[in-house]
Amino acid sequence: MTILTIRTDKPQAEIGLFQSHNQLAYQKWQAHRELATTIHKELDKLLNKSSKSLKDIEGIVCFKGPGSFTGLRIGLSAGNALAYGLNIPIAASSGEDWIKTGIKDLLGGKTDNVAMPDYGAPAKTTTPK
Asked: What are phi and psi of 33, to 5 degrees?
């Protein structure tokens, strides 16, 4: 199973491509405030470097947090949109071994309908006027 991993909770974002538990490619980049415009470009680079296409992805694992509200929102939105569009399973996990845990869940059929973030605290949003 070819699996895409996405972590966007910090200014340095990470994406990876795995064949089951074996890492095929992994890259990090300083996304900071440009994550929404760079995540798909970086995904395209990763797939090209691995001679893969979106159609080759069979599952997605996302880091769900805790972490940056905007970073998690963008990364999980991208992961959920890809999973929905490609009709493939998605799993969200956290902790030091998030990739290992997420891949184990994905391969074991323990997936999410929608990967939801865990911000670690209530989101701080402004009150509408």
From this structure: -90, 5
HSE, side-chain direction, 13 A CA sphere, residue 128: 0
Contact 83, 58 (CB under 8 A): no
Please report where in the chains the tokens 């997936």 appear, as a residue: 111
Of 76, 109, 67, nearest to 6 by C-alpha is 76
From the DSSP assignment, how many helices (H) and strands (E) are in the chain?
Answer: 3, 5
* Dist CA 52 CA 31 (whole Å): 23
pLDDT in tens, 17-75: 999 999 999 999 999 889 999 999 999 999 999 999 999 999 999 999 999 889 999 99
pTM here is 0.91
